[in-house]
Each structure stands twice: as C-alpha cells, then as structure tokens.
Amino acid sequence: MCGIAGFFSSQIEFKAGDKYRNILYEMKKSLFHRGPDDSGIYLGRHCGFAHTRLAIRDVNNGRQPMIRTINNNDYVIVYNGEIYNTEILRYNLKSEGWHFETKSDTEVVLLLFLQYGPEFVKKLDGIFSFAIYDSGHDILYLYRDQFGIKPLFYTWLDDEKSIVFASEIKALFKYGDVKPVVDRNGLNEIFGLGPARQPGNAVFKGIKEVKPGNYLVCTKYGITKKVYWSLESRYHKDDYEKTIEKTRYLLEDAVVRQMVSDKEVPICTFLSGGIDSSLVSAICAMKLKEKGEILSTYSFDFAGNEKYFKANSFQPSQDAPYAKKMVEYLGTNHTILKCDYDKQAELLYDSVDSHDLPCMADIDSSLVYFCREVSKKHKVVLTGECADEIFGGYPWFHREEFLKCGTFPWTPDLSPRKQLLKQDVLVELDMDDYVKSAYESAVSEINILPWENEIQSQRRQISYLNIRFFMQTLLNRMDRTSMHSGLEARVPFADRKLLQYVFNIPWDMKCRNGLVKNILRQAARGRVPEEVLFRKKSPYPKSYNPYYEKMLIEKLKKDIKDGAPVLSLIDEKKLTDFMAGEKDYGAPWYGQLMAGPQMLAYLIQINYWLNKYKIKIEL
Questions:
Q1: 2, 268, 339, 386: which is the annotated catalytic residue?
Q2: 75 in Cβ contact with 49 (< 8 Å)
Q3: Is the pLDDT of residue 319 over 80?
Q4: pLDDT tens digit sequence for 197-209
Q5: Which is a Gene Ontology cellular component entry for this protein (predicted)?
C-alpha cells in the first residue's frame, strides 16, 4: 500500500524552475505515513507525480513512480493497492511478448494499460487507486477500484484544464491554489449525512473523489468520467444447497487470494470472535498451517468494559469470551489490545488527521490506536469488514420500520443532528431536503427486477444503499486508520465476485427461518465452533466507562472557553444543556454505535477540524 499524489495541466510548463518540484516534495511528505519504506517523484513537462511506498511485494525493485519509455514517449504510473490476480495477468502479458523488470504488481498494471488501453482496468481483481500518464498523447488517467477500498481525491482548476489529485485531501492543499472552503453542501454532508458522505463528495468545496468503479480521463479539453463497473441486479439461478456451496467457495477463494505478500512480510488478522472475522481467520490459519506456519491474530477491547458494559439491542454481548474460544480452536499467536478512555479521547484528533474530516468519533479513534499497535509487528492484516452489508447483518434489514422509513436506515431520524445547530444555520442548510435528495438520488441507481414484490424491492434497495453508502464509510475508516500507521488492511468480503453473487441471493435464503446472515453461517460450518457460528451479531466494541463521557464534556467546555470555531454553527446554550443532560448509550444517531457520548466526541472533532484546517465557511 502507498500514497499517491500529483498534478496535470496541458497549459503549464511544470519543469520550469523548482516551484512544482517543491510542491511534489511537500505532497509526498504529507503522505509519508501511508508509505514509510520508500518514496519518489516524477516531473515531466505537463505532469508531476509523487509516491510514498509501503513495500509488500518485490520490496527491492518495486520503486515508484515507475516509467516505461516506448518510441521516446514516457508512460508513468503511481499506484496504491494490491492486485490479487497478478500472476495470471503477468502470464498473459508474457504470452503477448512483454518482458518484466520487476516482480511487482505495479509493473503488471502499467503493461496491461500499454497492451489493452484504458479499459484494461476491467481485468483487475484487487483494491487500488492509481494514476497513469501518457506523455505522447498528454493524457492523465485516474482509476479507483470497484468498491472504493482505496481512496483517490481530486480537484480541478483553470476551468477544468488543470487537475490535482492525491490519496488524501491533505496533499491537495500543498498545491497553493487549493483552499479549504466548506459551503452549504459540505456542511450538510457533515451534519446531515456524516460521518457518511455521498459517493464522489469530499465535503470541501471543489474537491471530489473518483467514484468507486470509475476512472477519469484528463486532457487539454477537460475531464471525462468513465464507469467501468457497477453492481448488477440479476436473477439468482442456484438452489439453496448450491448457493451455500458457491458462497463457501467464493469466500475461501477471496481470502486465499488476499493472503499474498512477500515471505518477509507476514500477514495477520483481526479476530473479534464474531462470525465474520472468525471465518476469515479460520481460512488464513488453515492455509498457513499447510506451510507449517502459525497465524497471528489480534482482538480489541476497552479498559473497564468488563465492569461498565451494559447489553442493548444494538450491542448484545462482549467479544472477549468468543475471541478466546476462537484462539483456542485455531491455535493462533494471539494478542489482546486494550484502549483506555484517555487514549481514546486523545486520538480523536489523530482520527481527523487521518481522514482530513470529522469521522466516526471514538469508534474511529480507538481503531487508530489498535492499528498503530498492530503495525509495530505487521504490515498486512485481513479483516471481517463488509460481511454485514452484503449478508444482511444489520437490524435495518429485518425490521419493518426501517424497510419503510424512506430514508437512510442507519439515520432514520435527523432530530439528534439538528438539535444543537443555530436556528439561522438550520434554515440555511435545509437539512431534510438535502438528505432526501441524496437518498432519492441513490435509490434511483438501483435496478429493481420486474418480478420482485414491494418487500423484495425494499430489501434490494437497502442492500444497495448499504454497499454504496454505509459500507463505504467503514471502508474509509479502515483505510485511513490503518494507513495512518502504514498498515495495509484487506477486506475479503468486499471481493468483487463474492459481493456481486451474494447481492442477488434471495432474502428467503439469506435469512432462512429468521436466522440473520444464514447463508454465511451455513457456508462457515466446519470452519468455526457452533457457539461462534450462531452467536448473535455484536458490532465493533466501544467504551462504556462513564468517566470517558465526563472527559469529553470537559474537553468541549475548554473548547468553548477558548473560542471554539464550531460555535459559529452550534448554539452555545443548546450545547451547554446537552452536556448537562443524561446521554443515551443505546439509541444511535448513526449506525449502531454512535449514541449520546459519540455526539460529544463528534463535535470535538468538528471543532478541531475547523480550527486545524483554517476552514472558510460559505453560507
């Protein structure tokens, strides 16, 4: 995994002087955390690239930017990702007469472009974002994987004749003409949808992200957006037993393909004791055992939770006992990491730094801590992320009130979000209309099959929204928190073939006899113990220590005293009353975990974000 950045303009001579070379160095420096092993820049006549590298494959020879010169024309690539079908693609290219100078997947991607042209991306199986510059035709291409697992932001200048791009927003600001401005739309993203975002929207005015399954073609005539992959609604032909068998095959195949790395770069897994991470860990442990190796696993918890945890409908049980059962069952080298409430609060700021945006508050900051600790021994981790989105694990797949709510089911009520805003800000934002428009736009993308009844159509809609919205938020969280410490996180459940197949499995199979995630559980038989196999879903853990809430309140009070920029948007009296009132731990305002205390943490993040980035607000 890596960090990439750069710029392109057919109207600017970048080679003249040191200005643009210095910009590339600054962009590269801002992304160093994503790739601390190596770095490089390329500066051509109309294009500049910067790269930081986390060396996973061909550690010695895979340096970037990578250049191939043909007929005096340079073809240059900066690449972030892992291609899981690299060896097949390499074999095919060799049969076409291409020779290789490295064993890296970066070179495979570049030669595929040269052999097949821009649509070659359809052949890639993996997670990626990359830029390719064709100097002969003076064209820049920007690509992003099918589900947006790897980030890629951009902004255009000079009437769309110049473009600046980067893995993270912070690098864009190193190009002097890009400024941190947030307008009405951006504030609606933060307060109305946040920590989610509409696909393609990066909150800052004028900054976008390449949408998943898309690529951009940048020429002297402007920017053209191309869709190369989209989720398809199809009739499911397989019977129940065949569906279980194929799901098992597709998942195990995805996990095994994603275990790729050089021998000196061992993998590990996150193991919570839930069905998702347990199954991924079981497959990894089995494959490593065949080679005489033992899998390393990690589980997470919070100091004091054994004392303060209270079960609720969203979080019915703690993970620790189940993680212990899986460790004993698999025989892994296991490490339990615990985060205390001081560290969790302290890292709220690092979370914003990693996203360049307010994010999932302490749900995010704790993962920053855990990933930092894991990165001290490992560079690659496989996770169980994304299983709930495709197998129907969340409450909103099952409850009628969510199916018929007519909005994003993880945010069915905007009242908790609106209660603290100033009245004039509320009027200006018109949050209800903005969220309604975002929802209707998303729903319009879904292809409903003609024979589906109302309930089936609603479940397909919710499945699609989960994949394109809710899952994207969690993928963003996983990438930023892991890469903030140079840890590469892989998500086998977001495999293209697996996800496309499971998306179309009928609900009466997915939830047969009312069993949540039934198909996944049946596919996991024999891989995990029965008590884990049929454990009721419990999401990522969070702190229930009451002292944590008190600490957040003290932090907010100090911010207010110091002249908090968030007070330009938040009513101070409403905020004071909120801090003094009792917080609900079991009624989320986003997802399953973000309840009363997380609203406090989210406001702390928003205030820090406004202050650090010196954001200009345009209303």
A1: 2
A2: no
A3: no
A4: 999 999 999 999 9
A5: cytosol
Give Cβ neighbours of residue 233 (< 8 Å, ≥ 6 apart): 446, 447, 448, 449, 460, 503, 504
In this structure, what is the dihedral angle of CA atoms 187, 194, 363, 143, given to the nearest 10 degrees?
-100
Listed residues 467, 498, 533: the one ending a domain: 533
Q: What is the pLDDT of residues 158-214, one digit of tens each?
A: 766 789 999 999 999 999 889 999 999 999 999 999 999 999 999 999 999 999 999
Total domains in the chain come to: 3
Query: What is the extent of the structural domain holding 452?
Result: 240-533
The answer to whether residues 345 and 277 belong to one domain is yes
pLDDT above 90 covers a percentage of the chain that reads 76
Is 353 labeled as ligand-binding? no
Query: Is residue 326 one of the residues assigned to a domain?
Result: yes
Inform me whether the pLDDT recorded for 316 exceeds 70. no
CA 362 to CA 348: how far, in whole Å?
A: 6
Q: Is the pTM of this model over 0.90?
A: yes
Q: Is residue 448 part of a domain?
A: yes
- Tell me: do 297 and 218 sit in the same domain: no
- DSSP string computed for 175-195: STT---EE-HHHHHIIIIITT
Residues 210 and 279 in one domain: no
Task: Tell me the CATH number at 452.
Answer: 3.40.50.620
Q: How far apart are CA 105 and CA 117, in angstroms?
A: 17
From residue 387, alpha-carbon distances to 169, 278, 397 in Å are: 28, 12, 13
- Looking up tokens 């994003």 gives 408
* Domain finish residue from 488, 509, 533: 533
Averaged pLDDT score across all residues of the chain: 91
Cα 603 from Cα 591, distance rounded (Å): 17
Q: Which residues pair with 69 in a beta bridge?
A: 74
Q: Tokens for 502? A: 């499971």
Whether 64 and 170 share a structural domain: yes
Nearest to 63 by CA among 27, 35, 93: 35
Q: What backbone torsions phi and psi does residue 396 show, to the nearest 5 degrees?
A: -70, -10
In a domain, 415, yes or no: yes
> Which residue type occupies 381?
V
Q: Residue 267: what are its φ and ψ, rounded to 5°?
A: -95, 165
CATH number for the domain spanning 144: value is 3.60.20.10
Residue 69's nearest CA partner among 89, 44, 96 is 44
Catalytic site includes residue 2: yes
Tokens 């769309």 correspond to: 160
